[in-house]
Amino acid sequence: MYDYEYKAQEVSFGSLWWPTDTTKLWAFLDVVMDMKIPFIMSHASPLAQVPDTVREKVETYGLGLLSQWTPQQTILAHAATGWFVTHCGHNSVIESVTHGVPMLCWPFQADQPTNAVHLTDNLDVAYELIEVRTGEHGLKPIYRTGRVPVGTVEAMQTEAKDILAKAFGEDGARKRANMKRLQLSVVESWHDNGPSARALEELMESL
């Protein structure tokens, strides 16, 4: 029997966001397919346009699914889902933590870059994709690491191969264990007298 646990990944940028440089997204999917990683990609954003060549390539691959809408929490809750490629919006982060799924962070703006740094550097439950960055500000030096993004498709593919190899290896298993501990702490916070339960009760009493 095929052991499917944690073997697949979900790719979703929410219902509004979408990469400005889509050549990097299609090149990322090429890496995923070259590494024989099953995936589901949601493209709900009105900005999303999936070329026919990409659709044909995914169909030929046979282990990928492109869908304009997907039930994100259902997918995250499935035992086959090992990683979540996300823009790191607030709702997506909360859902990923709730289901104990570590993340590959592809942030754009607003709260997303900060969320990605916190998940990657502080909580150690994610990897951040750096070479997907674009624009004058996106390619500036990263002060916390000293790294300067190259920003090319080739650099992104090299980084993606390295990160995906780690994610589906021992280092990824370590991050998943960290995520499971974080998931448990979130669940326990809603138990009787837990901090989240108390905060909600105090809010209700103040109304």
Give the strand tally. 6
Overall geometry comes to: globular
Widest sheet: strand order? 3-2-1-4-5-6
Which class best fits the helix and strand makeup? Answer: alpha/beta
SSE pattern, N- to C-terminal:
EHEHEHEHEHEHHHH
What is the count of distinct domains?
A: 1
Mean pLDDT: 94
CATH architecture grouping: 3-Layer(aba) Sandwich
Strand content: 5-15%
Main sheet properties: 6 strands, parallel
Q: Using only CA atoms, what is the Rg? A: 18 Å
Q: Enumerate the spans where pLDDT stays under 50 for 5 or more consecutive residues.
A: none
DSSP helix fraction: 40-55%
Q: Which superfamily, in CATH terms, is the homologous superfamily?
A: Glycogen Phosphorylase B
In angstroms, what separates the terminal alpha carbons?
A: 55 Å
What features would you describe in this structure?
The protein has 207 residues and is α/β, with parallel strands linked by helices. The protein has one domain (8-206): Glycogen Phosphorylase B (Rossmann fold), CATH 3.40.50.2000. It is built from 9 helices and 6 strands. It has helices at residues 22-34, 52-61, 72-77, 90-98, 112-122, 135-138, 153-167, 170-188, 195-206; strands at 8-12, 39-42, 64-67, 81-86, 103-105, 126-128. It has a 6-stranded parallel beta sheet with strand order 3-2-1-4-5-6. Helix 5 links the parallel strand 5 (103-105) and strand 6 (126-128). Helix 1 (22-34) crosses helix 7 (153-167).
